[in-house]
Amino acid sequence: MSTLPTACAPAERNEGNHAKLSPDSPSTQRIRVCVAGYGYWGPQVVRNFHNLQSSEVVAVCDTSSKSLQRAHETYPEIQVTQDFGELVRTSQIDAVAIVTPVRTHYGLAKMALQNGKHVFVEKPFTCTSSQAEELIELAERKNLKIMVDHTFLFTGAVRKIRQLIEDGTLGELYYYDSTRVNLGLFQHDVNVLWDLATHDLSIMDYLIAAKPEAVVATGETHLNGVADVAFMTVYFPRKTIAHINVNWLSPVKVRTTLIGGEKKMVVWNDLEADEKIKIYDRGVQVSNGESLYKLLVSYRSGDMWAPKVEQTEALRNEISYFTECVRNNRRPFNDGEAGLRVVKMLEAADQSLRERGKVVQL
Amino acid sequence: MSTLPTACAPAERNEGNHAKLSPDSPSTQRIRVCVAGYGYWGPQVVRNFHNLQSSEVVAVCDTSSKSLQRAHETYPEIQVTQDFGELVRTSQIDAVAIVTPVRTHYGLAKMALQNGKHVFVEKPFTCTSSQAEELIELAERKNLKIMVDHTFLFTGAVRKIRQLIEDGTLGELYYYDSTRVNLGLFQHDVNVLWDLATHDLSIMDYLIAAKPEAVVATGETHLNGVADVAFMTVYFPRKTIAHINVNWLSPVKVRTTLIGGEKKMVVWNDLEADEKIKIYDRGVQVSNGESLYKLLVSYRSGDMWAPKVEQTEALRNEISYFTECVRNNRRPFNDGEAGLRVVKMLEAADQSLRERGKVVQL
Amino acid sequence: MSTLPTACAPAERNEGNHAKLSPDSPSTQRIRVCVAGYGYWGPQVVRNFHNLQSSEVVAVCDTSSKSLQRAHETYPEIQVTQDFGELVRTSQIDAVAIVTPVRTHYGLAKMALQNGKHVFVEKPFTCTSSQAEELIELAERKNLKIMVDHTFLFTGAVRKIRQLIEDGTLGELYYYDSTRVNLGLFQHDVNVLWDLATHDLSIMDYLIAAKPEAVVATGETHLNGVADVAFMTVYFPRKTIAHINVNWLSPVKVRTTLIGGEKKMVVWNDLEADEKIKIYDRGVQVSNGESLYKLLVSYRSGDMWAPKVEQTEALRNEISYFTECVRNNRRPFNDGEAGLRVVKMLEAADQSLRERGKVVQL
Amino acid sequence: MSTLPTACAPAERNEGNHAKLSPDSPSTQRIRVCVAGYGYWGPQVVRNFHNLQSSEVVAVCDTSSKSLQRAHETYPEIQVTQDFGELVRTSQIDAVAIVTPVRTHYGLAKMALQNGKHVFVEKPFTCTSSQAEELIELAERKNLKIMVDHTFLFTGAVRKIRQLIEDGTLGELYYYDSTRVNLGLFQHDVNVLWDLATHDLSIMDYLIAAKPEAVVATGETHLNGVADVAFMTVYFPRKTIAHINVNWLSPVKVRTTLIGGEKKMVVWNDLEADEKIKIYDRGVQVSNGESLYKLLVSYRSGDMWAPKVEQTEALRNEISYFTECVRNNRRPFNDGEAGLRVVKMLEAADQSLRERGKVVQL
Questions:
Q1: Predicted pLDDT of residue D226
Q2: pTM as predicted
Q3: Residues β-bridged to residue B268
Q4: What does the alpha-carbon distance between residue A316 and residue B141 come to, in Å, rounded to a whole number?
Q5: What is the pLDDT at residue C116?
Q6: Least confident range of A178-192, A277-291, D338-352
Q7: Contact yes or no for A260/A280 (Cβ under 8 A)
Q8: Across the interface, do A222 and B282 touch by the CB < 8 Å criterion?
Q9: CA distance linking residue D218 with residue D229, whole number of Å
Q10: Mean pLDDT value of segment A18-22
Q11: With contacts defined as CB-CB under 8 Å, which chain D residues touch A252?
């Protein structure tokens, strides 16, 4: 029995063996989860696993006793511990949610998989693609699920955009251009690409059917030893180009993505309360005129509309989907492979960045 | 006698032999101008030369008889002609304003200079840096002025930003990040960088004291045989990085530049009617904490203010400045050299674009 | 032959004997016009009568010789004069456009009508309803046309809203709520209601089919001897209520109207470049619940869309329509009666204002 | 010992015997509170009393067992009850927070005061001014505190505006013009004025030193038996005029207040995340010119700035201030008298509304 409401179900592109929403023989047991990491995002993950019918949080794990105390005050009934290793070896839990710094993902996930636990892991998946490949292979071997927390894929906005692409409303994709800037250095161990562009790369991976061909990244390191301003271009086949502008040193917060299609164009402003997505019936038609220099360019400028967008909490949708995948032995579409594809683009971007924008083929 | 109001006078960085605003022995003769090109921008140039006390428009030249008719209807007293060559040989005129497609700039400017006429020329200056260098050398030899129409340098907004940089208000510059997108393919012979990024390159050249080191450009060609979506990074010394996002296929018009400084940050939205420039007392301070992983990052979030910005028409300021430079034998700061610096960056960008983002050293 | 493009034709509610757009036996003679008043708005009126095929400007009249000189410089071929009385007696002109201060409208219009000239007159029509009635009667008797320049009725925005009301898209009208504020004391002889609210009253008169029942106005006089901040409520039958907020002392310019209907709601922001009108599929349904205190209120929150709105200059549409009405002997829908209805509401508002918001029945 | 941080301390206009922030002999006992009403706002009140050092929540009271269950799940240690009467008679509690529908305020508050409990009561204070007067008198007699929850007075925005008025920055006040509209019928027993305008009336009462003279209100009842769209004007001495526009049927949410002063003007947009308050150095100067009709009006158009505004939760500031007032036997500035002044304006507005805008003298 799926608790994921139909309206929230992410459209599935690759039918493959990914989870369906009406599984034939669903398990009805609650998934018992241990959440590792109770910093900024951990409490959100705990709350959502806690509130679902299909899961329960058995334990919260963190190296900081202060964090554990916070967890205990909010959820007196949940066990807290600093010893992840011990806990993961018990049969008390079915799955582990890893909400810790990136550098620890690989170690914790490996330990979990080795002990037969499913893994829900914060983005970006791992520090390197070889770590990701090893984890994927391990999970495969043990028939365990890995889901990478690409939360945006579960928002009403991204799902609406995917629908517009899939049903042909936008037409051939010309470009995807995202600006994601604000004042904030939340990460110490990764640069601004691994922190912010990961969102866009996972969204692109979900929206753009084609495989990326090459990456170019430029940027600069001002304050923290890692790049805090960066720009990234991803070349796709069929002239689709993607561009991401991320910045920890912007005085204003911007979360705007322009998506240009042959037929329609989209502006997604994630900071708008109500009208996050605007679809423009605008475009350009080109035809050859009499002479070489006279192209007949005509602009189409029609209506704009802002469709109502599903407002359910994205993380709730995602975690509900995770428990269904585990209970019904289905592979999530945001699985380890999806996480790996994003890590590969980040690795390429880092390489390009180090050489001031060198083209890196994928 | 300067007709350029003091408030409008562009701040002069390089004192050199550039024009001053209170020249000692000004000529008081009117500059007689021929305007070549009466398409979209030409009428603005004619109107401004016409309205100034220090200049008069003697003739308008265009290959299109329709355009000439339009000119004649508006200014019955001004001579119209299709024969630039004949006109430029007469002693009727002192200067030529070239407001034609880029590919014709070099030929027309050379003819004008050879015949002893000063040149006011539309941006970008020329198609190649060698053309620009030849024209500069020719003007130098004949003691004639070249001014490249980098109109934005004469807006209240850019002048206010330059002042904020020069007086140290912003502190060390971290980045310059411009987005200049809209729906429109106004040019057939140049790509979107030569059309739109030229503005930003001329502004950067004016604002950032240092010499650019390297250029990276990426982009894609969808409709017209030339790139219509492009992204350009310019590396400067001292970790200043500039980035330009230009796009002819955007459903919405954006003209926003973020400028991040060590002390203050600026958002310049040129589409705002009143508050084009906002200065944020925001920033980041970093100090080393106890351990390797604990950098003490503190955010400064203070007031914002929007200074009143000079509203005089920029082109009027610029053309007035041109006539002063000619009358007083001064070199304008937006001279052929400034035009050449911009052309060099565009050439580098084209080279990078062709190789999907190859780094091009300047 | 109508020069008013079909797309621009104002929807006609009262078929009556108002002008149609495909007249059976159109005159093809040019209407010869004298424009009285060449201040702020006069030049716009001259330009439009001048540019149309169906009319020509024979003379411009103003008491200020400076204004006449400006007119002469722009239109050397048009006669200029300070003596309206003399001119209006000649057979040189067919119609008079009165673009002078309100207090002079009655006298000039009367003189024009007495001499057999049609009248196009700036809003508000006259200072008093009895003046308006006298002019209407005079025009009727002499079979002359009066058109009151309610320019907004010829904008794409207002025509689109009228269409949405007429075709039932909005449903029953709940309210019309306009805010029209800015920094500016453009008028010395009338208060802010006569200056700014006139626009809204003429729009309401055009959009709301019912006759207004009562007026309440409040406001205050700070600087100029006349009210510079004012608020006006107009009660209509069937629970439609209109409200107008006008202010000469606002630091920001606002031109926003909310229109609430039973089925859909409209936000018209006239300062938006592209998306002036937004239509919201939002509303409230009320049904009686179990108990007295439990009304079942449900909110409908659906899509928003911004229809493309006709961008032709409103004044051009209006003046073209005027010439057609004159040539084809049709009564314009924005005739003297429309002007009179607005003046009556303004008179009632003045009376209410003087007594600090006393209700004035219409 | 005051727990109210200095930065949050509301500026005190009337020194009287209102609470000071550095009381000489503070009590240090925790205030024991019973919160009556656990609907929409109640949980916020409970959370804040719960989180403060200076208070504890002893019991939550509600007629709905569902609400009580919610309360119990969140705060297992807090007693829940449906019997307010019993609880209020015990010596377990020092104060009562009344967060119930308006019609019950008087009864509950009276019971609390009669039993010697201090009262924190939701806005609007009571249904009638005589109820308010009776409660004030009762509290006075028993030396108990009443605080009316005018939360906005404890926001950084309102406190900053008050400071700008008090230090003379704005100069003489011309007008206060608030728009507070959205889609929502949250109240069944009161009209939109009692629901939404109460906020503005309490803010005006706090900001404008003078006593209001007269009230005019207009509006209409469409759906619910009570006015859902309403407009209210309040006349103050010295030509200060206030206007409030409230609407439950607006497709968009607006929370904007314009405040015009002789020297500066303020736009307060409460929906802005960062720059809620903008101060404009704009205005008008009038001087007499040569003739009667030529007033010399000059516009001043200078800088705008957005001061950083205190972001602490307003309700936290307010509840902390309440406990201080109780502990130190001080009268809060938002006491019963403040609540009564607002109720009197609402009563006058209701009377005016019933007679379609009749002026009601205060």
A1: 92
A2: 0.89
A3: B257, B277
A4: 74
A5: 97
A6: A277-291
A7: no
A8: no
A9: 9
A10: 42
A11: 274
Distance between CA atoms of C346 and C193, rounded to whole angstroms? 7
Confidence (pLDDT) at B3: 34
Asked whether the beta carbons of C334 and C18 are under 8 A apart, the reply is: no
Structure tokens at A251: 């005085």
> Distance of alpha carbon C275 from its chain centroid, rounded?
22
- B16 — pLDDT class (breaks 50, 70, 90): very low
d(CA C84, CA C87): 5
Residue C304: closest C-alpha in chain A: A306
Give chain C's contact residues with A (Cβ, < 8 Å): 274-275, 281, 301-308
Residues above pLDDT 90, as percent of chain A = 79
The mean pLDDT of chain B is: 89
Burial of D151 (0-12, 13-18, 19+ CB in 10 A): buried
Q: Residue D14: CA atoms inside 13 Å, Cβ hemisphere, count?
A: 17
Taking residues B166-170, report their average pLDDT. 96
**What contacts B241, CB < 8 A, 6 or more positions away?**
A218, A219, A220, A229, B174, B175, B176, B233, B234, B235
Phi, psi of D244 (to 5 degrees): -130, 130
| Sole residue written with tokens 């004619």 | B46
Chain-chain contact of D245 with C216 (C-beta, under 8 angstroms): no
Alpha-helix residue ranges (DSSP H) falling in D17-64? 42-51
Q: Select from D301, D302, D306 the Cβ nearest to the Cβ of B304.
A: D306
Provide the residue type at C38 as one letter.
Y
Residue, of B87 and D17, whose pLDDT is higher:
B87
Output DSSP code: residue A151: G
E strand or H helix at A43:
helix A42-51
Enumerate residue ranges in chain C where pLDDT < 50.
1-26, 290-294
Q: Are B151 and B320 in contact (CB under 8 A)?
A: no
By Cβ distance, the residue of D189, D223, D267 closest to C251 is D267
Note the pLDDT of residue B189: 78
What are C183's strand-pairing partners?
A: C249
Model confidence at A4, pLDDT cuts 50, 70, 90, reads very low
Q: Is A265 helix (H, G, I), strand (E, B) or coil?
A: strand
| Dist CA B116 CA C354 (whole Å) | 72
Residue pLDDT, tens place only, D295-331: 556 777 789 999 999 888 999 999 999 999 999 999 9
Exposure string of B193-202, with b = 16+ CB inside 10 Å and e = fewer, is bbbbbbbbbb
CA distance C86 to chain D (A): 26
Distance CA B129, CA C46 (A): 49
**φ, ψ dihedrals at B355, nearest 5°:** -105, 30
Per the CB < 8 A criterion, the answer to whether A32 and A8 are in contact is no
| A181, A223, A295: residue with CB nearest B286 | A223
* Measured CA distances, A133 to A140, A343, C58 (Å): 10, 10, 85
pLDDT given for residue B262 in this prediction:
92
* Binary contact (C249, D174; C-beta < 8 A): yes
- Contacting chains of B (3 CB pairs or more, <8 Å) are A, C, D
Going from the C-alpha of B74 to that of each of B30, B78, B316, the distances in angstroms are 21, 9, 19
Which residues have CB under 8 Å from B252's CB, separation 6+? Answer: A258, A267, A280, B181, B182, C274
Strand, helix or coil for residue D88: helix
CA–CA distance, C152 with A218 (Å, rounded to integer): 51
pLDDT at B23: 40
Share in percent of chain D as helix, strand, coil (round to 5): 35, 30, 35
Q: What is the pLDDT of residue C286?
A: 66
**CA D83/CA D94 separation, integer angstroms:** 17
Q: What is the pLDDT of residue D287?
A: 62
